[in-house]
Every structure is written in structure tokens, then in C-alpha cells.
Amino acid sequence: FIPRMQVNQFDYARYIRDLEKGHFRDKFNFGVCEEGGGKWLLEDFVQSPNALYVGGMGSGKSVSCRFSVLTWLLSNSDKTVMFIIDTLKGAQDYKTLFHLPQVYDVVDSVDGVFRVIEMAYDEMLARNALFRQHGVESVAAYEQKTGKKMSRIVTLF
């Protein structure tokens, strides 16, 4: 009389296939949307370069963010520079990423946070001037017009 419980398991084979096909290129993967029949919940990074994870303590924010960041790095490692900023826990949740060459170690001071923000602002001004020079409005348009890759800068607070 007790109905069988549905067990949802992550399809690793599908995940690897989609990684190899470039399905997550320039997309931020937030997981699987069960209502959509198991479709990936993707957001175009070029169109929407910001994400916010919200929830109570123990709700899985760090686990979800690690999955999204790992998928991003696997799909875009050739054009990513990542800064991890954590003034509370020293980024212990992300320590497995520190050996990757495109991930910069923990910024754990107020001065360090301001340096990263200053650097991002300076980079934004430089890219804006470069886009004006080439008559384009986005990273994707610049890459298509020039054939040159431009790194994505990801800052994880």
C-alpha cells in the first residue's frame, strides 16, 4: 500500500557527454530542472553574467555553487580567470579548485577585496575602449570579428 518513492539520480554519463559536446560553453549551469523533464538549467553568461545563491544554513548553497563553478571551469578553462573571495571561512568549500592555473587563491582581507574590484573596474574600462575601437558591443561579437579569444573574469564572493 506504500507507493514507491521516485529516486532522482544524477546522470553522470549525460553530463560528461554534454561537456564534451560543448553544451555548457559560456553557460552557467545551475543544475537540472526537474519540471522541464530533466533539462539543464542554464543561463547565458554573456547575456547575464551575475548569479546569486540564497538559502538558509545547510540548504546546499556551497554544494550548488561548487557544481556550477566546476562545470564552468571544465567547459571554459581556456578563457577563464577566477578570483575566490571569502573573508569568513577562507574558501574551504572551494579548496579543491586552487590547484587550477586559472583560479587565484583566496582573497581574505578588505584591502584584497578592494584590489580585486579595482582590477575588475580597470579591465572593464580597457575592454570598453577595445570594443569601441573594433565597433563591437560584446565579448562574443569581439571574438567573432577578430578571431581572438577574450578571457571571462569570474569573481566568487
Low-pLDDT ranges: none
Order of helices and strands: HEEHEEHHE
**Bulk shape:** globular
Distance linking N and C termini: 49 Å
What is the strand arrangement across the widest sheet?
Answer: 4-3-5
Mean pLDDT: 83
- Strand percent estimate: 15-25%
Q: Briefly note the structural class of the backbone.
A: alpha/beta
Number of helices: 4
Major β-sheet annotation: 3 strands, parallel
Cα gyration radius (Å): 18 Å
Give the beta-strand count. Answer: 5
The percent of residues in helical segments reads: 25-40%
List the helices and strands and how they pair.
Layout (H helix, E strand, L loop, with lengths): L11 H9 L6 E7 L5 E6 L16 H16 L3 E6 L17 E5 L2 H25 L4 H8 L5 E5 L1
Parallel strand pairs: 3-4, 3-5
Antiparallel strand pairs: 1-2
Could you characterize the architecture of this molecule?
The chain is an alpha/beta fold and 157 residues long. The protein contains four helices and five strands. The chain has helices at 12-20, 61-76, 110-134, 139-146; strands at 27-33, 39-44, 80-85, 103-107, 152-156. The strands form two sheets. A three-stranded parallel beta sheet has the order 4-3-5. Strands 1-2 form a two-stranded antiparallel sheet. The protein is globular and about 70 Å long. The termini are far apart. The model has no long low-confidence stretch (mean pLDDT 83).
Which keywords apply here?
alpha/beta; three-stranded parallel sheet; two-stranded antiparallel ribbon; 5 strands
